[in-house]
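Re: beginner question about structure tokens

> Can someone show what the tokenized structure looks like for a real chain? I only ever see the sequence side.

Sure, here's an example I had lying around. Input first:
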Amino acid sequence: MRMQAAEIADLFGQAIAAYHAQDQLDPVCPQLHGADAWTQSLFEKSWIDTVQWHLEDEIRRPNLDGSAVLGLKRRIDALNQARTNAVEAMDIHLQGLLQPVPPLGASELRTESLGWALDRLCILQLKRYHMEIEAMREGGPASAASRLKVLHQQNQQLLAAVDQLMEDIRAGKVRYQPYAQHKLYNDPDTNPALYGVS
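And the corresponding structure tokens:
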């Protein structure tokens, strides 16, 4: 895989734009025409994040009744688990692609896997998209333009960091180490509020 971070970020942006072209809060993710499985999985990852972003907005409406809040909370929890599953699947795929054989000798470990770095890149595209709306909105917060500038700077820095991490992994300088989240609260075998229910 020689896809650069900017291309991945662009694909995330395509999913964000496609979501906003829909007139639904939680639409089904479309299939990209002619996309390979990896490209489709990146698009779907961004779609999950985008739907969750909007449900997180919705749950903060002050006039929601308890049943609506509960329904949204459960949907957000499911999306959060889907997001984690997607990142972990990305890590397994990327490890096999970029470093199928662990490097010999000493190699660095990073505190974040490439999959989770791409997750941060995806969320950053969402932040930029929505902050741009706020910067352009009449009556929007005065701070939006300066905050958008910071997000653009962070985007450039993260793009460079992701590209460097991919290169270091390919070269064997960094050992690819996926980090499994093992979310206990979503698992009926590990959450006492679930397995203790009779």
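Each token stands for a local structural state, so reading them left to right follows the chain. The chain has one domain: 5-187.
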